[in-house]
Amino acid sequence: MEIAISIILGCCALGAGTAMIAGIGPGIGEGNAVAKACEAIGRQPECKGSVTTTMLMGCAIAETTGLYALVIAIILIFVAPNLLVDILVETIKSL
Amino acid sequence: MANTNRRFKFVDIFYIVMMIVPLVVGVIIQVLTKPLAEGITLTGARIFYTVPMPIQDLVITEAQINSALVIVTILFFCLYMTHGIGEHIKLKRQHFAELIVEKVDGLVSENMGEYFNGYSPFIIAILALSACSSLVSLLGMFPPTSDLNVVGGWAILVFILITYYKMKCGPLYYLKGFTEPIPLLAPINFISEFATPVSMSFRHYGNILSGTVISTLIAAGLSGLSAMIFKFLPGFLSQIPFLQVGLPAVLSIYFDVFSGCLQAFIFAMLTMMNISGGFPIDEYEKRKLKKLAINK
């Protein structure tokens, strides 16, 4: 019983950690977006306002995939262990 | 004259008091109901009351109560700002109110086009509600936007609006939109239709929730670190977490203030873009002209 519960907890933590590898993508993407925005502002300083607004919008949209991973990680840490342990206990009781 | 002036002032003070009272009530509820706990505690919205219902029980959570309090605050703020305004500017606050209205009108007409000019009240309502709901965490209250149910509700509202405007040219034209560019892609188009509210709500909720999680982790980490560093101090001095003073506030500027306002702005911008982008304005005007020609 204890071993099964520790396997569940450990695998949930491992899964959460693995899910957050997705954080690499938005990091690179947003870095590119900001770099290009800096170039654009350097070339045309009078467009600063609209370039900044567009960049923030683009960054927010690029961030979405990372946030999906974050939501999955949070579910794995805070929700999944209780659920899985409950299922385990129920199964053992019914046996 | 003096009498009316005094009444005017009285109404003003009443509005200001009613602006502050909900926030104070929220803080008092928070203080009274929050269980004392040691170390790190990360919980979702606490459930206050459960109403039995036929299909599923209706639960009254912290998030609902806090967002209702925020709505009351915003309502009385609007009443205060618009109280006593007229054609000739008499009060300073009229400048501010007009500034807000002009900015939002400009933003809406710039991003949505002429047809959607009546949409600025809706957009500013979403913007103000979202920003204030996130900023409420500065008072120590549970921010309603870090609950998926609240943000999901807004996203469903926006999704209904998008679908309504896509259906403006008739359901057949709406269904035809799924088979573009080729009919083979219809399932993918169908999924991407439903991905819009999911991604909108997840983006907003994930950003605010991650800010809360990181702030809590850093606060807990700093308390452990200061207990380790200041171990040599005599007596109760070693118990005081010195590093927790001030440092979390600096992070809170980014995670609570900046992130909250930015996500509110992005949610409003995406609302505008999705609604105006889904509406086939050329086709709609063509059909309108045709209808007029037939009627004549």
The tally of beta strands of chain A, per DSSP, is: 0
Which percent range describes the beta-strand content of chain A? under 5%
Unreliable residue stretches of chain B: none
- CA distance, first residue to last residue of chain A: 13 Å
Structural classification of chain B:
mainly alpha
| Total helical elements of chain B | 9
Which term fits the overall shape of chain A? rod-shaped
What sequence of helices (H) and strands (E) makes up the elements of chain B? HEEHHHHHHHH
Strand content of chain B: under 5%
User: What is the mean pLDDT of chain B?
Assistant: 84
Summed over residues and divided by their number, the pLDDT of chain A gives a mean of: 90
In a few lines, what is going on in this structure?
The complex is a heterodimer of chains A (95) and B (296). With 95 residues, chain A is mostly helical.
Which terms summarize this structure?
heterodimer; A: 95 residues; mainly alpha; 4 helices; 88% helix; rod-shaped; B: 296 residues; two-stranded antiparallel ribbon; 9 helices; 70% helix; globular
Task: Give an overview of the whole structure.
- The complex is a heterodimer of chains A (95) and B (296).
- By secondary structure, chain A is an all-alpha fold.
- Chain A is 88% helix and 0% strand.
- Chain A has four helices and no strands.
- Chain A has helices at 2-19, 24-43, 48-62, 64-94.
- Chain A is rod-shaped and about 70 Å long.
- The mean pLDDT of chain A is 90.
- In chain B, 70% of the residues lie in helices and 3% in strands.
- Chain B has helices at residues 2-33, 62-82, 92-112, 120-135, 148-166, 171-176, 186-229, 247-278, 281-295, and strands at residues 47-51, 58-61.
- Chain B is globular.
- The chains are: A mainly alpha (95), B mainly alpha (296).
